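Re: the 103-residue chain
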Amino acid sequence: MAFQVYTPKERGPRREPKPTVSLSKSSIVLNKLARKYVKGDRFELAFDPDTKTIRIRPSEDGLNLKKTKIHAKGFFKHFDIRTKGKYEAHYNDQENALYVPLQ
């Protein structure tokens, strides 16, 4: 029997955390940093079909945020969004909005 020794690699520099948004079949989940940027209990969702980008910003008339999740099944159906996965969000401080490119 020939044993091979494991030697761990050195860790590289820590990556800076980024706001992340996860899309599932029926909801949008904001990570801790994304929630830190756009604070609120209700959010407006908008979609640009040309650039395939979701905009998320606080709004009194928007959808409820429950812990980390926005239930957005109707939003996905309305714009025929079938994409799932985890996406990096970009914060625009002038509009107080997160932009999530789906490409």
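Residues 32-37 form the longest helix (6 residues).
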